[in-house]
Hints:
Layout: E1 18-23, E2 26-33, E3 41-44, H1 56-63, E4 68-71, H2 87-100, E5 106-111, H3 113-124, E6 129-135, H4 148-161, H5 166-170, H6 178-188, H7 202-217, E7 230-235, H8 244-252, E8 257-261, H9 268-271, H10 273-285
Parallel strand pairs: 3-4, 3-5, 5-6, 6-7, 7-8
Antiparallel strand pairs: 1-2, 2-4
Amino acid sequence: MGTTSNDPVITSYAQSPARSITAGGVTYAYRELGPKAKIPVIFFTHLAATLDNWDPRIIDPIAAERHVITFDNRGVGASTGTVPESVEAMAEDAYTFITALGFDKIDVFSFSLGGMVAQALVAEHPELVRKLVLTGTGPAGGKGIDKIFRVTYYDTLRAVLTRHDPKEFLFFNRNEAGKPAARAFVQRLQERTVNRDTPIRLQAFQKQLTAIKRWGRSPSVDLSTITQPTLIANGDNDRMVPSVLSQDLHRRIKGSELIIYPDAGHGGIFQYHERFAPVAVEFLGR
């Protein structure tokens, strides 16, 4: 499964090999690309997402410099098992996957639900994480996170009725800036044409929603324990995980950096990928 120094380095997410590893009774589906290194960048994805939901315009620039691994957590996509109903349990599954690959130090790139899982992972295993990228996410007990049920179902219904992808409504503003950015993003997700992932099952999606709701209603935690260099980013109009929560994370994580993109929603990093990707590459390469 490993590569030799003579093998060409794949830096295109659309071409990255599909792999799997079994640990703790679960077979995890993952992809890896970029030059092999001791410290990889592990990508933690969003609600209802599989491996096919990562924007190649974010992944590819990072993979040009770094060893990148994306994965389906337990019960998601092609990974086996059942999705747990708590963010903390998802973090333990992620830990099982990462350590099964033999890594004892990683950088984390996370989006939305993935950012909640990343925070829980750092809380339990601070020695594992060197750097942290938190995008479109919020802290435990963050006001408004528990409303995600309502927003998700409302926007999904709107999308179905107008024959759009729900992410066009959930991630982007429905205006002159947002609509073309949404269409372009959805098209980019189709660039991989072979070895695509298994779509998320409805039961898995519902369990993820339950976990997010619990995260939003759980007690606030002390984020001053996060001492890793942290980059936080979002759009200024996030309807799924309110943008003010990104500012809250920034205030509470000492030394963190914050980027808020104007006239953008939950998918601000995807709308502004040309600006954001180089910032992420620089931060992770520092």
